[in-house]
């Protein structure tokens, strides 16, 4: 939702907003959700 709104307004996402998204992703993964194939590829590219 944040990225769509920022694209529409022509703004870039700030680093602190990106970090909060990553923390939300980590929370959902710890709670037992599964990776999708696309997200798994992106995650591996970013963190390895």
Automatic annotation (TrEMBL):
Annotated InterPro entries: Ribosomal_bS16_CS (IPR020592)
One Gene Ontology term, aspect cellular component: ribonucleoprotein complex
Domain of life per record: Eukaryota
Molecular-function GO terms, alphabetical: structural constituent of ribosome
Keywords: Chloroplast, Plastid, Ribonucleoprotein, Ribosomal protein
PROSITE patterns the UniProt entry points to: RIBOSOMAL_S16 (PS00732)
GO annotation, biological process: translation
Protein name per its UniProtKB record: 30S ribosomal protein S16, chloroplastic
Gene label: rps16
